[in-house]
Amino acid sequence: MESKNKPVDGLQDYLGHSSQEHEVRVAKVKTMREQGIEPWPSLKHSTTTSKNILESFAEGDTTAHQLVGRVMTVRLHGKAAFVHLQDESGKLQLYIKEDLVGAQAFAQFEQFVDIGDILWLSGTVFKTQRGEISLRVSQWSLQSKCLHPLPEKFHGLTDVEVRYRQRYLDLICNTDSKNLLIKRSLVVQAVREFLNQRHYLEVETPMLHPIPGGAAAKPFVTHHNALGQDFYLRIAPELYLKRLVVGGLDRVFEVNRNFRNEGISTRHNPEFTMLECYTAHQDINYAMDLIESLTQFVMQKIGADFKVQFGDHTLDFGKSFERISLHDAVKKYNNLSDADVNEENIDAILKSKRIALRKSDMNLQEKIYLLFEETVESQLIQPTFVTGFPIEVSPLAKRDPNNSDLASRSELFVAGLELANLFDELNDPFDQAERFHEQVKAQAAGDAEAHHYDADFILALEHGLPPTVGFGIGIDRMVMLLTGTTTIKDVILFPTLKKK
Hints:
Elements: H1 11-15, H2 20-34, H3 50-56, E1 65-77, E2 80-87, E3 90-97, H4 98-101, H5 103-112, E4 118-127, E5 133-144, H6 160-165, H7 167-173, H8 175-197, E6 201-202, E7 208-209, E8 221-224, E9 229-233, H9 238-246, E10 251-259, E11 271-280, H10 284-301, E12 307-310, E13 313-316, E14 322-325, H11 326-334, H12 346-352, H13 364-375, E15 384-390, E16 399-400, E17 403-414, E18 417-424, H14 429-444, H15 455-462, E19 468-474, H16 475-483
Parallel strand pairs: 3-5, 6-10, 14-15
Antiparallel strand pairs: 1-2, 1-4, 2-3, 4-5, 7-9, 8-9, 10-11, 11-19, 12-13, 15-17, 16-17, 17-18, 18-19
């Protein structure tokens, strides 16, 4: 190979970090180029994977296989070396012997190859005396030189901060992390497959919104220089998706990012993935059934058991999800009666539990909801649909036909986490306009999460939104719950972190 004669001196200064091992490897690169060996050469193709070799092994097979992977361990024994190579499918042992690859090639292997390097190899498969299927290497070449040592093999990458900031190291060193993040992709694929089978149309709606809306949250603000106006990273795609239903797309969904300028915790990331789905001519009972079926379909597709260990709890997704009204949930989990949960007693109940009112003019339903948030949500461990939310906290939902103080709305809770929000969509433009006005008043009073008045959406409703149910599911939380992962950062490839 011809050297490209690229400079390597001072590389550590450019990268902004160094170590003794790093400097040794940089020096190796310089020596390699002096000898005409390119550390990052052109592509050489592989014909198989480590998994295929292990699964298709047959005694006496002399087929030559070409393989590419990363060096994870090296054991030198005189004129031979045993190497464990890792590719996307798994690991395989290599046997490299001087009289097979040649004296010069073996000497270069000894001198230049380090753990972390990516190699191309050709050879035949055999079984060692200890019974390990291995590749007997006849040719090898470097595909990419690794300039930093990998985390120590016996303990792996245990520093949580490094795992999130340098996810590539986490994927290289931690098989469990890699499998979990692969499973996340399979969850999204399964969600799409489920909805496609039911003739839903996947769409994309804007990420930049001139007016923030679709959920109660504080938005991120950005500025478009050419237009000379502020835009907001979307907090939800809801209002755009409902415009599509007005336009005659009766079954639509979107899987994409939402952004909310809120705190970071084991359950929250300001940038997260959401499924939102809308169905014309159906109601929340249909949506609850659909979400239950979707969850179980996804679990089957990713090969998960319906019973999942999540922290101290065993979650059971295999049976029908419980359905309970918010009012009944408050009574059940606080040992209260109908006589307790009324105008006369609710203030005393809140005071006894040291729950402060959020505003002075809260009505009975809002106070019951406050009691639910503070005392019930964390106790909803098994999958549970809660129905009957106050209309004041549901500005985009249709009123319950049996109680105008409540919304025709439900939320799915699992392990104390809100997993899904669903409701019959408000399609009365006069009612929606009035609720937007109330939200504007709340915003003026200091509620940074209140909705803005969206005149264009009202115009769309005036053209006729059919009876429609919509729901949203947090994909990150779904992956957490279905895989028994208690920290949201573990299921996001690159979680939001504070700048170092």
